[in-house]
Amino acid sequence: MKVAFYMDFANMKTGGVYIYAKGVLNGLVQSERIEKIYLLHREDIQDVIADFTQNPKIEHVVFSQRSTGFKLRQAASYFLLNTASLYAQDFQKYFPKRNVSKRLKQLAYRLNPLRSLVNRLDADVVHIPLNIPPIFGINKALVITVHDVQEIHFPAYFDANERMRRAVNYKVGMDEADGVVVWFDHVKEDLQRYFQLDAARIRSCLPPVANDWFEHVQASTPDTLQDRYHLNKPYVFYPAATWEHKNHLVLLQALMKVRQNHPDVQLVCTGHQSEYMQHIRSWMETNQTDWVHFLGIVEESDLLGLYQHAEMVVFPSLYEGGGIPAFEAMRMGIPILCSNIYPFRQSIGSERFLFDPNQPDDVADKINRMLEEADYRNENLKNSRSQTQKFNEMDAASSFIQAYTEAIAYKQSNVEA
Questions:
Q1: Which in 5, 19, 219, 398 has the greatest CB count within 10 A?
Q2: Is 36 within a domain?
Q3: Spatial distance between the Cα atoms of 196 and 299, rounded to a whole number of angstroms
Q4: Phi-psi region of 20 (alpha: psi -120 to 50; beta: other; left: phi over 0)
Q5: How many CA atoms does the CB half-sphere of 150 hold within 13 Å?
Q6: Would you say residue 211 has pLDDT above 60?
Q7: Is there a single domain that holds both residue 305 and residue 335?
Q8: In 3-state terms, the chain is what percent helix, strand and coil (to 5)?
Q9: Coil/strand/helix, residue 338
Q10: Cβ atoms 7, 39 nearer than 8 A
Q11: Are residues 236 and 166 in the same domain?
């Protein structure tokens, strides 16, 4: 099978999407069933994907998004496609014989600046690991990854315009795709329930978690981290962007309680700082929080060092599509505590190390146990080794290849119809 894989976001600013895409790509490269991979990427990120430069199975397909013409065509293409989909019933009602939606879609396809590039590739399927595909109307099967639909479960965390934008773009993206990949079944069920997507077009595929972004990274030493960020051990580590559903405030409240018995414990947070960071800072200003360090996006060497030298990783998120940091912590042998939500129940596998993310007391209790009880800590590490071994033994690439095969069949059936 020949696969075109889209990756124009290959940097740590995109957080879990970058790690996910890199893991999937690694898995495909190692699969004997994949003959060739066309790696679609921007010209300015070649240094970031250097790991794939010399692989004979990969052919790089480089494009530029810098020109005004490219941006205008992309914007116009999105606008026309969304309009055709959003007002399809109205067009049919008022112009029943003119096929307005179909004509707008065809124009959108022609304007898409990457369509002709992809159509020329000798690929069987195109995988875009994003909720909103930038390429559509192609002559090959299209597979997208829908990472989450958190706005449905936590609408108050998004303003009306953002909820509308996501609803329209996600719906259009799924309608254009021949197959949709998700991490776990909870997202699959959401797509069936809220977007009326046929279950046969959705496949749950856990990415190859054995492929680590950190395996070729030299970790920063404790002295380097101390000099650079003025950190002191012990510290709890939380690598997550400051979106509201990431639940930083509950973790802060929990650690306030923990510090009553362990006043030397600090909190270190990394990741993109969203607009919600101002609410977190407001809370911090009303409390004594010189023990809290929000570092933003850090270099991979520093991120690895922060993981390795942490007392534990704590992940209190209210919603996740997959939850990559849990897999990372387990593979690194770092104690991990997570919220009791579906993806962590799947990845952690034991409720002994999960907590109610809405209850700071429960979070604090688990952290105190990890700090004070050697047996609890050792059981956590033993559980991580067991879960890691289980995931290592999974043939993750086969799940994606099956999703591609089904998408190809779906595309062919539509062409024949």
A1: 5
A2: yes
A3: 41
A4: alpha
A5: 17
A6: no
A7: yes
A8: 50, 15, 35
A9: strand
A10: yes
A11: no
Six-digit token pair at 234?
């012990």
- DSSP codes joined into one string, 225-278: HHHHH---SSEEEEE----GGG-HHHHHHHHHHHTTT-TT-EEEEES---TTHH
Q: Specify the CATH number for the domain of residue 38.
A: 3.40.50.2000
259 and 194 in a common domain: no
Domain contains 87: no
Q: Model-level pTM?
A: 0.91
Could you give the 3-state DSSP secondary structure of residue 216?
coil
Within a domain: residue 214?
no
Domain count, the chain: 2
Burial of 414 (0-12, 13-18, 19+ CB in 10 A): exposed
* Domain enclosing residue 269, as ranges: 222-392
* Three-state SS at 1: coil
Share the mean pLDDT of the chain. 92
Please check whether residues 281 and 401 belong to one and the same domain: no
pLDDT at 9 over 80: no
**Terminal CA-CA length for the chain:** 24
Closest CA to 190 of 154, 142, 241: 154
Find the helix or strand (DSSP H, E) in which 164 lies. Answer: helix 160-176
The reply to whether 261 and 409 lie within a common domain is no
**Same domain as 317, residue 238:** yes
Among 14-28, 31-45, 309-323, the range scoring the smallest mean pLDDT is 14-28
Please report the pLDDT score of residue 212 as a whole number. 62
Do you know the residue count of the chain? 417
Q: To which residue do tokens 């010399």 refer?
A: 54
Residue 76 within a domain: no
Contact 207, 213 (CB under 8 A): no
